[in-house]
């Protein structure tokens, strides 16, 4: 847990007061408690996690359940209105901004997006359903993504149109 928290703190440039870092502390604690074998230890830690999760959710407006596999270096750039389904998967070094939803397209089919590494999601974007977002992908602000996005592409618009990234854009974000 502490190794991941060090990586998270590095991703937030050492800013302990970044609200996105608070979200990651609650998330990492929630994941860590699953490793406790003794129910006498796990149950109080589970209660503490639920209280911490709810407090962080109310303060930051970010819903990131500990059931979501999250890679290292997740950055929540701007807090508020971010919802990540418990069925989603996030790769390493992803970036989320305010108003992002990563969730189900239909409630009768619990399948959520799987994000690759180095995915940058713009403010207000919605990623819905059983889709795969490749590595080094940019999702534009307010885009609604309902289909797979291959590696090294950009998805913009409603519904999202997928375009290859230009070499200039790739250099600026590498």
Characterization of this structure:
Helix content is 31%, strand content 19%. It is α/β, with parallel strands linked by helices and 174 residues long. Strands 1-3-5-8-11 form a 5-stranded parallel sheet. It has a 4-stranded mixed sheet with strand order 7-10-12-13, with no helix packed on it. Helix 1 packs antiparallel against helix 2 and helix 2 packs antiparallel against helix 3.
What percentage of amino acids are in beta strands? 15-25%
Biggest sheet architecture: 5 strands, parallel
Task: Note the total helix count.
Answer: 4
Q: State the distance separating the first and last CA atoms.
A: 27 Å
Order of helices and strands: HHHEEEEEEEEEEEEEH
How many E strands? 13
Radius of gyration, Cα only, in angstroms?
16 Å
Helix/strand-derived category reads alpha/beta
How would you state the average pLDDT, rounded? Answer: 91
């Amino acid at each position: 847990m502490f190794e991941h928290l060090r990586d998270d703190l590095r991703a937030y440039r050492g800013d302990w007061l970044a609200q996105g870092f608070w979200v990651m502390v609650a998330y990492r604690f929630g994941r860590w408690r699953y490793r406790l074998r003794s129910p006498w230890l796990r149950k109080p830690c589970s209660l503490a996690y639920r209280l911490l999760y709810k407090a962080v959710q109310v303060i930051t407006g970010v819903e990131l359940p500990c059931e979501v596999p999250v890679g290292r270096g997740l950055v929540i750039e701007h807090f508020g209105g971010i919802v990540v389904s418990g069925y989603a998967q996030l790769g390493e070094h992803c970036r989320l901004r305010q108003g992002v939803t990563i969730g189900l397209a239909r409630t009768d089919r619990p399948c959520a997006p799987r994000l690759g590494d180095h995915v940058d999601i713009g403010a207000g974007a919605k990623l819905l359903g059983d889709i795969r977002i490749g590595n080094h992908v940019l999702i534009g602000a307010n885009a609604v993504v309902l289909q797979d996005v291959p590696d090294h592409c950009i998805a913009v618009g409603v519904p999202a149109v997928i375009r290859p990234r230009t070499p200039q854009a790739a250099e600026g974000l590498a």
